Amino acid sequence: MVVVEALDGSGKLIVGGGFERAVEQDEGLHTILHLIHAGRRYLAVFPIATAIGDDESMATIEIEGLTKIYDNGFEAIHDLNLKVADEEFLVLVGPSGCGKSTALRMIAGLESITGGTLRIAGRVMNDVEPKDRDIAMVFQNYALYPHMTVYDNIGFALKLAKVPKKDIDTRVRRAAATLELEDLLDRKPGLLSGGQRQRVAMGRAIVRQPAAFLMDEPLSNLDAKLRVQMRAEIAALQRELAVTTVYVTHDQIEAMTMGDRVAVLKDGRLQQVDAPQNLYDFPANVFVGAFIGSPSMTLFEATVRLSGHSGSVTIGSNEIGLAQECLIKYPSLRDYDGEPVIVGIRPEDYQDAALVPEVPENRCISARVSVLEALGSEIMVHFRIDAPSVDSGDPDAIEEKIGLDTANAVGRFDPRSRVKLGDTVEVAISTENMHFSIPGPAWLSDSNAGRGRNVDVLKYRRRRDHRFDAPRRPVARS
Predict the structure, then answer these.
(1) 154 and 254 housed in the same domain
(2) Residue 245, beta-bridge partner list
(3) Which of 10, 204, 280, 464 lies 20 to 30 angstroms, CA to CA, from 410?
(4) What angle, rounded to 10 degrees, do the helices at 224-241 and 194-206 form?
(5) How far is CA 85 from CA 103, 113, 242, 303, in A?
(6) What is the pLDDT of residues 49-80, one digit of tens each?
């Protein structure tokens, strides 16, 4: 229900959705309704999200060909294409300098757009001021006013907008109840813990009732235990409020546990966007495969040998038999018999052979244990495979040190394993879960690839992500 003034100033009309006649006029960030009722003409001006009969309250964010080039010629964002659905929680993740925060600031209006188009709720926002974009931003450093109480910090934006005091009080107390800050409203930020300060920053965003939340690494300053708690709270809060959210983080565990979809960036280019589990199971290229997952997937130079309905992969001095499931999953391997490939193995696909006697001997290798990390529920076993490792292209990855005792593989062993530091252990490998790439930009075709949600909105450029040359012939798509 909205109250509007008559054009001649002679009275007011309470509009509950019914009126004799209305003519709608689109004026960018507002919709103007010319209403006719009882022979009088009324004028109503509504923000986009509250216009009568307006279905564009759906806060989609559409990014088409977005580019950012700074004055010194550095291109931070290259032809970014993304669509964030209404009420979706999308996470932007990538290594340092990949452009994720720059992209978020372009959505917020804090960075100018060099090229491309940005739409929020269907309206082009390229040249719209940040205050007029109907978004709320949560920063890494909280950005709280130290001299104000929690109550005043949460309600400050509403006060600047000259919202009536009664409405401010209602919104602030409702947000405080949602965030469990009711007993802290009279305190100042200096008396709060890191988690409580982050809740206050969230409350300040919530009370504005924006079309979208933008969060720039909001948990980076918290300790590990509090991060786990807060990421669960933020994800639950976003589902409760049903507000479109774009969340930036460098922590791929945060990305995997919080997002409906995750967009992986590298060097300002979108590598892949998909549901978290699909990123893990079906990475688009070597970089995504190694970046998503902790500990990281290990990558080795290898050679595939095929004979009839069986096959093997040679990694260093180890010839490892391939499971039939692997050959069915990757039919394109038959085009690379005897040729160099890249093989990727996840930590959970290494296991103490003593605990899995059903695994054939030709799928086991011997390795010396150089580091043990007993975590209670699992044991991280570091060992070395005598094969050249492959650089995934992650600038944050630790450069491999070459040496006989330097580990280049990590296995996630069952806690029942009795391996000890310095032991030579038989390691069973689940070859049915291996990932394969040719020396070039992308993984070999997986018969299950492309089954993720909304993959069709992705337009990314494939490019080399490691040191090898392009393949001599194209990969056969299955």
Answers:
(1) yes
(2) 89, 213
(3) 464
(4) 20
(5) 17, 21, 11, 43
(6) 333 333 444 789 999 999 999 999 999 999 99
User: pLDDT at residue 174 above 60?
Assistant: yes
Q: Which residues span the domain enclosing 188?
A: 61-281
The C-alpha atoms of residue 171 and residue 198 are separated, in whole angstroms, by 18
The reported pLDDT for the residue numbered 478 is 31
Q: Are residues 98 and 39 in the same domain?
A: no
pLDDT tops 60 at residue 28:
no
Please report the pLDDT score of residue 138 as a whole number.
87
* Mean pLDDT for the stretch of residues 297-325: 91
**Amino acid making up residue 83:** K
Are 225 and 323 members of one domain? no
pLDDT exceeding 90 applies to what percent of the chain?
51
Asked if 261 contacts 90 with a C-beta cutoff of 8 angstroms, the reply is yes
475: in domain: no
Q: Which of 235, 253, 281 is the last residue of a domain?
A: 281
- For residue 122, tell me if it sits in a domain: yes
303 and 170 together in one domain? no
pLDDT at residue 21 is higher than 80: no
When divided into structural domains, the chain yields a total of: 3
Q: What is the DSSP letter of 98?
A: S
Please name the residues in contact with 165: beta carbons below 8 A apart, sequence gap of 6 or more. Answer: none
Per-residue confidence (pLDDT) for residue 39, from 0 to 100? 58
Q: Say what the pLDDT of residue 37 is.
A: 54
CATH no. for residue 224? 3.40.50.300
Type of residue at 344: G
> Do 43 and 69 belong together in one domain?
no
Other CB atoms within 10 A of residue 175 CB:
23
- pLDDT at 149 exceeding the cut of 90: yes
Measured CA distances, 220 to 90, 248, 266 (Å) = 18, 11, 20
